[in-house]
Amino acid sequence: MKILFIGVFDREGKSTNTSQILAFKKLGHEVYGYNYRQKAVLMGNENRDKDLVSTIRDRAFDLVVYSKCDVISQKTFSEINKHTKTCLWFMDPLVSYTPEMQEKTSLVDFACFDKKNVLEKAKKINDKCFYVCEGFDSLTDKPHDELSQKYDVGFIGNIYGERQDLLASIVQKIKISNNVFGLEHSRLVAHTRINLNVCTDKGASDRVYKILGAKGFLLSDDWIGREDHFQDGKDLVIYKDSQDLNQKINYYLKHEKERNLISSAGHETVQKFNRLSWAKRIVEIYGKEI
In the structure, what pLDDT confidence band is assigned to residue 11 with cuts at 50, 70 and 90? Predict the structure, then answer.
């Protein structure tokens, strides 16, 4: 199959699109990447959209996959759909599912979502909407068993809103890091005894899969659909509030054996949610549903 993947690609591993396009290629598809942000810098949004339409019109793709693409105009979405089948890939939480993205959901042949509450809203707009887990990159989100654990508690990500208040309530000293990607991310997970996650709008962050992929012990608040994939107390541990969080941090710092059993089980369970599985599912939906 000939696929055009419209996304953001880099060499640093900051963008998940980089590993996603490689997954399509590993499946044997002829895949071309179109870096829509880089093109906009070079030629401006309007000319970029014209170039995108002409590229698709002239090269006969079987499928175009948009990775969010919130800055590409709705008019361009409509024009592209005249020439090929289209898929919108949307990975963000419910708060980011704006009216613009809702309209774009209506303009594609099918759409795939990483958050189940976003999916339920999207199904009211387009009945060809599906759950596809973003998962983790097995090339970078991997165990580093040789590294020593030098931090008791860690959080990787941006700090804002209720998340800031929650992290501030933690009694134990916490290592907070941001702008950490790829192998640096998995190494930091390996250095940390308890890796924290805080969900946004009850949607699973990719942090969940990256930490489990790196065989880290994950302590997270709950999200919609979690029980379909991971078992609390077996693959990871769920906390209810700040008091429960502090109690569980204290408990699992003292019980290394339990912590290691859970991190090993979580690492095994998460293997079904790698980038190759993500790409296979999109191709499968295209073949069966469209």
Answer: confident
Which tokens hold the place of 233? 């107390």
Going from N- to C-terminal start, the domains of the chain cover 2-135+274-289, 151-272
Mean pLDDT (whole number) for 31-54: 97
What are the pLDDT digits (tens) for 75-96?
A: 999 999 999 999 999 999 999 9
Please check the confidence at residue 13 and state whether its pLDDT lies above 80: no
Out of 3.40.50.360, 3.40.50.720, 3.30.870.10, 3.40.50.2000, which CATH number does the structure's domain 151-272 have?
3.40.50.2000
- Which residue, 189, 184, 181, 207, is CA-closest to 145? 189
CATH of domain 2-135+274-289: 3.40.50.2000
On the question of pLDDT at 290 being above 80, the answer is: no
Residues of the chain with pLDDT > 90: what percent? 97
